[in-house]
Prior knowledge:
7-stranded antiparallel sheet; 7 strands; about 30% helix
Amino acid sequence: MIAVLNVHERALPAAPETVGALLDGLGSPDDRLWPPNWPPIRFEGPLAVGTHGRHGVVRYTVSHHVPGRWVRFRFTGPRGFAGFHEFAVERVDDRWTMLTHTLVVRPRAPLWPLWALFFRPLHDAVFRGVLDRAERELTGTVARPARWNPYVGLLRAATARLAPRLAEEARPVSRTNAKV
């Protein structure tokens, strides 16, 4: 089975507590981390171990959480993707804090091409957007904003037909409507 390790990180000019506050607001009505031009990330309740969440077609459960420092999400969907993704906040020095997003996933053999051709380009684009959003929230600007390559633009255009479904996906997760 092929395993994927995908890491995005950015040093931010802020204290860990300030960066951690952005992380703790993830998926909340006051979310200042998730980029607004992507299907929203939603949780069934506060960010805590056992909480179910999703964005678009991706489903997960919070498996580990240290408020303001670290959160890990175990994938529960789409079917055929086993693994997790996580955010970590780590002090670099007195002025800088590293915000890291790590994904470890093992797509089953028939899904490997789907990961490589569809999920990975979109994943990379959205998490570059997360880091841009964090930098903008903390500094008011982004030194080198991420740009979508033409392929990501094509994938987003092709999936635009799914807009009604994605709107449905944006509803808050509850035990009655969760498919996790």
